[in-house]
Amino acid sequence: MKETEDIFLNLINQHKAIIHKISKMYMKDAEEQRDLFQEIVLQLWKAYPGFKGNSKFTTWMYRVCLNTALIYFKKDNRKPDKALLDENIDVIDVNENEGKEEKLTYLYAAVQELNAIEKALVFLFLENQSHREIAENLGISEINARVKLNRTKEKLQFIIKKNGYEF
Amino acid sequence: MNFDDLKNEWNAETPEGSNISTNMLKIKQAHTPIDKIRAKMKHEFFYQLFFLALMTFIPYLADFSSTVNQVYLMTYAITCGFTAYYFFKFYVFYKNSYDLSMDTRKNILWFYYEMKLNIELYKALTYIVAFIVVGFMSAYLFIEKASVFTKILTKLSPVYILLNCFITILIIGAITELWAWFYYGKYLKQVKKVVDELDYE
């Protein structure tokens, strides 16, 4: 068990950027981002016994992370989970992008105006997924993925422009 | 807007913060809508058990006649039977684990229909219990207060009695639907929204 846990932790720590990025895309508030991050890690751990290595670890991880974010229900009353009370989990530093990654700061702000599926499309696109891979992950046709992605990119451009930024 | 530049920055972004540790894997409570519904159903199961236990004292407290007592026992047995059947179904739902590594469409539809099915089961149980209670109350009035009840019934027109029955059914229906919606509806609504977004052409 300990060995499985170590292998799993090693794998998700290598790819924790995926969880960070999805949490930031799906939740605006820093505390909610932490909650979602925590939920994704938990769901990955619960789903891990089902990972048989037939696909790449990241492919499997994309699906579990996105599916969790899509159906995640915000906590009604925020209370810190006991397991985390003694641990300093600096999941998201809200000011981390300040000054150094202006484009991404604007991007994260703009995606908040997109719906859950549009966020998934943008995320997979930025992760260098092809139209076919996006279609496979979302369970839609390749043509549909292409059309939806183009529309979403236009919408994103419009939002960013509307917010007074252009790049 | 140059998406290639954006992609480069995106891929270069490295998250700050400490590594994920074992502690994070020890959290017991998940927050998917299914988990929320399951947690609520678990609470309801205990409330239901408590009320069923409480119901065993009613004949002693209400001092029923032997005939009403027999009717009550039958009603109680039927309620227990239905509750046991539905809670067995809920238990199967509770234990049925989900697979988040499926593609999004399969995953979201699984969640949607699984939740919808169980909310419908929950409503069916509420209807059954409500009608059993109404049935017992009517039997009680017919047996224990027969003279008063018959007097009232003879004074009322059949249309009025029928109308009252319909209104009672309507009230039970409205309360059940509203309760189920208030208690579980928001979760179903959220998942349905994602299904619609996925299907939007």
Secondary structure tally: strands of chain B: 0
**Strand content bin of chain B:** under 5%
Radius of gyration of chain B: 26 Å
Structural class of chain A: mainly alpha
Q: Return the structural class of chain B.
A: mainly alpha
Overall number of structural domains of chain B? 1
Determine the N-to-C terminus distance of chain B: 25 Å
Average predicted local confidence, pLDDT of chain B: 86
Largest interface, counted by CB within 8 Å of the partner chain's CB = A-B, 71 and 51 residues
Q: What distinguishing features does this structure have?
A:
heterodimer, A: 167 residues, mainly alpha, Rna Polymerase Sigma Factor, Chain: A, 2 domains, globular, B: 201 residues, 0% strand, elongated
List the helices and strands and how they pair.
The complex is a heterodimer of chains A (167) and B (201).
Chain A: H1 2-14, H2 16-26, H3 30-47, H4 57-71, H5 82-85, H6 102-111, H7 116-126, H8 131-138, H9 142-162
Helix pairs in contact in A: 2-3, 2-4, 3-4, 4-7, 7-8, 7-9, 8-9
Chain B: H1 3-12, H2 33-55, H3 58-62, H4 66-95, H5 104-144, H6 146-155, H7 158-199
Helix pairs in contact in B: 2-4, 2-7, 4-5, 5-6, 5-7
